[in-house]
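Blinded run. Sample ID left blank on purpose so nobody reads anything into the name before looking at the predicted structure. Input follows.
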Amino acid sequence: MAMNNNTLDKETIRNGNSRNGDSQNGSSRNGSSRNGSSRNGDSRNGNRTHQTFPVLGMSCAACAVSVESMLKSTAGVTDAGVNFANQTAWVDYDTAVKPETLQQAIRSIGYDLVIDAEDPKAVQEEAQRQQYNTLKISTIGASVLAIPVVIIGMFFMDMPYANWISLIVTAPVVFYFGRRFFVNAWKQARYGKANMDTLVALSTGIAFAFSTFNTIYPEFWHARGIHPHVYFEAAAVIIAFISLGKLLEDRAKSTTSSAIKKLMGLQPKTVQVIIEGKEQELPVAAVQVGHTLVVKPGEKIPVDGVVTSGSSFVDESMITGEPVPVEKKKDEKVFAGTVNQKGSFQFIAEKVGSDTLLAQIIRMVQEAQGSKAPVQRLVDKIAGIFVPIVISIAVLTFITWMVLGGENAFTHALLTSIAVLVIACPCALGLATPTAIMVGVGKGAENNILIKDAESLEIGHKVNAVVLDKTGTITEGKPVVTDWVWNGEADRVSRYKQILYAIEANSEHPLADAVVSRLKAEVTERVEILTFESITGKGIQATLPDASVYFVGNRSLMLENQINITDTLDQASGQFQQEAKTVIYFADSREVLAVLAIADKVKDTSQQAIHLLQQRGITVYMLTGDNEKTAAAVARQVGLRHYKAEVLPSDKADFVKELQQEGKVVAMVGDGINDSHALAQADVSIAMGKGSDIAMDVAKMTLITSDLQSVPKALKLSSKTVKGIRQNLFWAFIYNLIGIPIAAGVLYPVNGFLLDPMIAGAAMALSSVSVVSNSLRLRAAKL
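Blinded prediction complete.
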């Protein structure tokens, strides 16, 4: 579907109908944006179609690979991709292929596609909610039952029926609360694959089976002069630990679709339409091109169109990110999802349904979220090689001992092969990443950095380009009076302030709020306004009860009324304009009494934060929809060399793509809905905490304080977390590289040493403790 984005730039917002005729005037850049096609939903091209389906039942990144390879191998499918993070699959396929065929193929490997529901996302969310609740019950159940088994195994092995009690308590942990590991491992095995579930099922299954044999038939070992050991506690604890890790992962993934929901929520459900001269309420889906719609104060605009009558100011920050509402009068364009302020107007619908700018933003966010390759978890990759190697070593150990082991060959072969499988338990591997991530996330929270998923922590340390939105990120995000210069004595100035406050309090212009906020604390007496006239594009003329006349507005209003401007005030206004600030003149009928400068103030910490990023060798870019003069002034103030002005939302995402194509790892920092597409496109996305909910939901990190200095802290936290993960994996592997050969009996020919499976179990536990302890060191790190 070709997209034609008719949007307004920020010059129109600040200056198109501004009372300041002296700032950079600009007109709307209405026109076509680049064409693109939707990758989400259903788009058709000749005899091919492209569709996105929710996927049910995926529990790890290896599952996503299985679903993708199965889809790609289905007849009639030209390409397919699976996003594990948002649990969806997109498929390019021949129109002769029915979705039921795709569903059948996926069901054959134990997963499911949602194809025929009215609301597929709702079906998927319900299934995920049920899965999360089941996993929560399993984790609690496994943990509660594992505790007594560990206590018996560590301290009360000599008590009567200790082994039988452990067997009875462990059985439900392994075969009820841990059954999904065995089911998933079987699914993988059927197609010659292995993942973390395979390791868990293999080690816990072998440990439980071996322990059960030793409990039921201990005579087998007694007859050979060996005391039989049991490893029920190892099986129970592994199930409990790994279940907890999966629960935390599922919890993090459960919010991935809420950003799209909130974007969709920007559009009202019903609208007021003029039909045959009467207002009627219709569902927004029933609105057609050419309908005349009525918009009242405070209402959201339902579709894109052109104003036919009335006027108002509209908050378009969801499109432009700029804080100042735009004046709308006849022939001005309005956009779905933007919010009307104080006035009311009628407009003709030009774009409805999936053609509106809001619908395009939704599609763009979905596309950017879904276009990323499935996250192949490092541990799952390792497990894919590790499991077959461990099994091969165990089999080889058994055969070697059977051939070379002498009279006790079978005994030694069984014990050593079991020891290999027990010592190769994936607990250390399974805990290496999640424990470091958990501590890293907690450390981030202590420093006002909320981290949504592990991926952003893993990638953050590679970032070499940071893209900053201007409004609300580098600046405060709202217009304030930054400077003023008054003409007159102190007592007269006090009276002037009371008059200016009274006039601006009556104004609907958005810049008036900045003046009112500045004067509110200083004004104690209220001045009565007799008449009040708004002069379009110029300002206000007000008359007091004593017949004195005052003006508030731009320079042209002053010149038109032949009002004198003193040299001092003229120089001040020139300086303010050079700093790209909006200038407002306040005058009586003879001379200008004051000039006020209004701007979006740069945050106190922005310059220092940008300097810290540059010190780390990171190139910092600023993007803004504002005019070149304002952008240059802000860039100069914060020490930025790279910036782009007059940028539309789609341009921001394209700029991020360009940097990525140059080989850069890009972090995007923004606060508005207009940043959501670029945030979703970036490798690491960071939202400012005082920004929109949409930006915070799309972003993988949120800064609670809106202090830009948290950005370098977040990247430093990523470096330290990744360092911890690498150390954990190193120790987990060293443990396995040393432990497995010893368990296989490599020292037996040298000194007669054979590793008891019980010691192998203890070594496994020690490896887990060392990994967790190393992760906890991050808590003491300084950011």
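Unblinding after everyone has recorded impressions. The longest strand covers residues 304-315.
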